[in-house]
Amino acid sequence: RVVHRVGFSKADLPLAVPGGDRQSPVDIAVKKSVFDAELKPLVTSYDPHTCQQIWNNGYSFLVEYDDTKDKNTLTGGPLQDQFRLCQFHFHWGETNEWGSEHTVDRRLFPAESNPHWEQVRLTTGYADQTHSLHLLVLMCGNTGVFVLQDSIVEFNRFDPSCLLPGNINDYWTYHGSLTTPPLTESVTWIIMKQHIEVSHDQLAVFRSLLFTSAEEEVQKSMVNNFRVQQPLRGRAIRSSFTPFLQEAP
């Protein structure tokens, strides 16, 4: 499933409080979402040659991009500014029964991908996408070299547009937080209605990654690297589409 995460201005950044009122992830209750005709189509632009490296950071793995120029950009949707792609990472489960952080009508997905974008006009701020794991179609031949924690491998060409579903104009959006420390409540999430398929073999490659347990100092399989869901606390979830009208016969 595709999800985007977008930051606010520096002045709007609240303290990172785990018990705050705008924590993520959440469940997307379709019937309770509110159609917003002001939500625009998303506009993306990518340069595959700006891809730099893959890094196993012990929690997930990151594919990092050069974000010093407007080579990979995201605009439109609920955004008022342009964002540049910095990196993307993933969350997945030990089985295909769970793994995603966000759910739709309580439906779990095996995984999410979170590309991270930085707001161009700020020195801080971010915008992220969350997608399913179509990436591994292109990475299966290389994953063995970054299985171990802290492994960094040069990776000079990857077009992240292949992670997008065919329809990027139907999505939900809400204000939330990072799902990893410091859990800062400075994020606008964009969850795509259309998800992307991933094979069992591709998910198995993710589950072959290793991290070192701080408590036991032994290597373990990197699985279930997601945060539990948080209460919505009255936040509105807006949609760019009217699903019941679209799906009517």
**Spans of at least 5 consecutive residues with low confidence:** 4-16, 123-127, 129-145
CATH C-level label: Alpha Beta
What is the tally of helical segments? 3
How confident overall, as mean pLDDT? 78
Helical content stands at: under 10%
Q: In the CATH hierarchy, what is the superfamily?
A: Alpha carbonic anhydrase
Corresponding CATH architecture: Roll
CATH topology, which one?
Carbonic Anhydrase II
Instruction: Calculate the terminal CA-CA distance, rounded to whole Å.
Output: 25 Å
Portion in strands: 25-35%
How many domains? The number is 1
Give the SSE string.
Answer: EEEEEEEEEEEHEEEHEEEH
- Global morphology: globular
Largest sheet: 13 strands, mixed
From the helix content, strand content and strand pairing, which structural class follows?
mainly beta
Strand elements, count: 17
Q: Can you describe what's shown?
A:
With 249 residues, this protein is mainly β. It has a single domain, classed as Roll (Carbonic Anhydrase II). The chain is 6% helix and 31% strand. The chain is built from 3 helices and 17 strands. The protein has helices spanning 136-139, 200-207, 243-246, and strands at residues 3-7, 27-28, 34-35, 42-45, 51-56, 61-65, 73-76, 83-92, 103-104, 111-119, 127-130, 152-154, 171-176, 187-192, 210-212, 219-221, 238-239. The strands form 3 sheets. Strands 1, 3, 4, 5, 6, 7, 8, 10, 11, 12, 13, 14 and 17 form a 13-stranded mixed beta sheet that branches. Strands 2-9 form a two-stranded parallel sheet. It has a two-stranded antiparallel ribbon with strand order 15-16. It is globular and about 50 Å long. It starts with a strand and ends with a helix. This is Carbonic anhydrase Va. Belongs to the alpha-carbonic anhydrase family. Residues 1-241 form the Alpha-carbonic anhydrase domain. One of its GO terms (molecular function) is zinc ion binding. It comes from Nothobranchius furzeri.
